[in-house]
Structure formats: C-alpha cells, structure tokens
Amino acid sequence: MVKTTISVIKADIGSLAGHHITHPDTLAAASKVLVDAKKEGLIKDFYVTHVGDDLQLIMTHDKGEDSPEIHGLAWKAFSEAAEVAKELGLYAAGQDLLSDAFSGNIKGLGPGVAEMEIEERPAEPVIIFMADKTEPGAFNMPLFKIFADPFNTAGLVIDPRMHNGFIFQVLDVFEGKEVELRAPEEIYDILALIGTPGRYVVKRVFRKNDHVIGAVVSSERLNLIAGKYVGKDDPVAIVRAQSGFPATGEVLEPFAFPHLVAGWMRGSHHGPLMPVGLRHAKCTRFDGPPRIIALGFQVKNGRLVGPADLFDDPAFDEARRTANVIADYLRRHGPFMPHRLGPEEMEYTTLPDVLEKLKDRFVKTDIGYKAKIRHSEMLEEPNE
Ligand code: F6R
Ligand code: MG
Ligand code: MG
Q1: Dihedrals φ, ψ of 239, to 5°?
Q2: What are 96-115's pLDDT values in tens digits?
C-alpha cells in the first residue's frame, strides 16, 4: 500500500485592503516555490489556495509528518509570498512569520500545521477544511458530531465498519498535554473537555477498530507560542471520508449549523461560522463573519485529484442565511459579552490601561468589603 503524507500548512503573510483577503500575486509566489519542489520530486503534488487573509498550502509527499524538508519548503513559500506582500505594500505583510530564520520545524514559528500520514486506500477521499477569523477549537463541535453523534452520522449506527466508534485525542493547549478518549463510552468526558474550545482542542481522531487516523486539526496557538497575541490561529483540518469513515455528506453535515466560534473582529468576538465556497472566502462584514471552506480531493499515489468546492452549493444557503441572521443579532450587542469575548481571551484590550487610569477614582464600598470575605465564612459568622 502507498504511504502518503498530506500536509496542510497555512500562514497570514499579508492581505489586501485590511485583513480580509489574500492577494493573488502572493499565491502565485508560493505556487512557484511548490512547482519547483514538485519538479525536484520533494513533494508529489500541491494545491495553493486561501480563505480570508490566510494563504493555504496543501501538499502531498512521502517524507512523513514533521519533516524538516517539507516544513522548510513551506517556510520558503511563505517567505517568498511575504516578500511579494511587502513589495505590494499589503497589509500586515509577513505577520505570521515570527522568526527570521527557519530551524527545522515550522511549528512555533507562526504558521498553522495539520498533517497526517496515511496508507492510501484504493480510493481515498479527503476533505480539507480551512477557516478564517477563528481558532482550532472551532472544529471541536463539528468533529464530535462527525465521529460521535449518531444524529449526525448515520454510519455510526448502521455501518458495521464504524459501529465500534472512534478515539478522540484531545489537547490541552495551556498545559501542552494530550489525552485519548473513546467514543461512545466516554462521550460525556469528551464533552466535558471540548465544550471549552479555547483550551481543549480535538487534535486527532482515530478509528477504534484499527487506530487508523481519520482526522487531524492544526493546533498552534500563536498567542501561547509567542507569549503574546500576534495574530489569530485560524485553523485547518484534514478529514478522511467514506469506506469505514463517515461519508462526505456526514462530514459536511455539521456545518449546516453555523455554530458560534471565537475570533471575529480583532480576535475578540464570537460569531457564527459561515460555510462558503471559494468565491466567498473573504471576510468583509465586521472582518467576518468567521468563514470556512471545504475542498474535497481524491488522493491517488500522492496525486491530489480535484478539488471539489464542497460548500459552493445551495444546500448550504440556509446555513449562510442563518449565519447572517445570527451575525445581525450578535452585532446588536456591540461591545457587550457574550458577543465580545471574556477579558482573558481578547486579542485586543484596553482594560489594564483603563483600570490604571481610574485606580485612584475607585472608592471602597461596603459591598466590596463583604465580597472579600469568603462565602463560607459569611455563612458561619454573619458580619453584621
Ligand atoms: C486579523 C483580524 C482583524 C484585525 C482588525 C484590526 O486577522 O481578524 O479583525 O484584528 O482588522 O487590525 P489592525 O490592528 O491591524 O488594524
Ligand atoms: Mg490577518
Ligand atoms: Mg486569518
């Protein structure tokens, strides 16, 4: 069986008229680097695209995951594209290339990475999801539905090859730890974690029968890596479909519900995740709303056959309409939570400055005094 690695590596290296869309010349610059690499035989195939302000490199090769050669190639493609972005004076040119030099692995340097090495099935349908103005945890709910929810995925109930369920590898992005949990046995534990998508991220999904990989998500949190927010970690995911994995339609089905995700405007707002075709992969309204595209390929001996632009379909019109209704509703909250994220999650904040400025104007109140007393103490000894 042919072993193929699929690497999807993305970076925001600058965009046109704000943070809303890449410039075609930057895609051309990145493509040129990959054309040469394909000619040299370093990669087998590639497809370059974008969603919003993120440049996406989809590559196939036989070098395995975390290959310094492949990561170095992606770094070169982004660097060349960033040079073009600088020449054109694009906005935030080079923003995700946090280091001046590449040192073997692109992780931690800014770009997002999702990679899986697979043994190709005779026919290998793969779906690449790419989202802008959101975070890796945005995939938590869809992946749970795809691989663990029988109301989404009929195959979990009626396909003997999937009936045993799947294993979720969940990453704690704060602690840098991961845990494997089994569905359906442990779905309440899985949900107890991944319902907090800013911290617990579904990183990989394996089929329980044979521990073969079914899905992988990029999970580099730029804010944690760089010690400060320098841009968002707009995520990508690779999902295998059919013959023992969820059908393409089961993989796409969760996106008919535009769930709320974090990352809209200034990385500091919640918004609905709108599924769109490539022609609408740009973030205009309030720098959004957060968008996701899905490209379907057949992978054959490392060759990428396709893509099919899977959300470019009237079947997702209603999801887009609902997303617009939700966007209107949320926007009316202006600077109020829960449209605006909580203070600990915001990419932009003036709160420390405001508190510093007002520190001498805050006066102690009786309520403030009582609030300092622990609740239990108050019950034992009423302070009246
Ligand atoms: C960036 C993004 C945007 C920016 C916003 C402000 O991916 O999502 O919403 O955060 O446009 O950008 P600056 O601070 O560069 O003016
Ligand atoms: Mg940007
Ligand atoms: Mg982006």
Answers
A1: -130, 130
A2: 888 777 778 877 778 999 99
Cβ atoms within 10 Å, residue 349: 16
Radius of gyration of the chain (CA): 22
Instruction: Among the bound ligands, name the one nearest to the CA of residue 54.
Output: 3
Q: What is the percent of the chain with per-residue pLDDT over 70, rounded to a whole number?
A: 92
For the sheet containing 54-61, what is the strand order? 45-51, 54-61, 3-11, 112-119
pLDDT in tens, 65-77: 999 999 999 999 9
Dist CA 319 CA 315 (whole Å)? 8
**Best residue among 13, 15, 16, 19 to mutate for probing ligand 1, ranked by most atoms within 8 Å of CB:** 19
Mutate to test the pocket of ligand 1, among 266, 269, 345 (most ligand atoms within 8 A of CB): 266
Cα separation, 106 vs 114, whole angstroms = 11
Mean pLDDT of the chain: 93
Rounded CA-CA distance 156/184 in Å is 10
Name the DSSP letter for residue 382: -
- Is residue 313 classed as helix, strand or coil in its secondary structure? coil
Among the atoms of ligand 1, which is closest to the Cα of residue 347? Answer: 10
Cβ-contact 241, 298 below 8 angstroms: no
On whether the CB atoms of residues 197 and 135 are closer than 8 A, the answer is yes
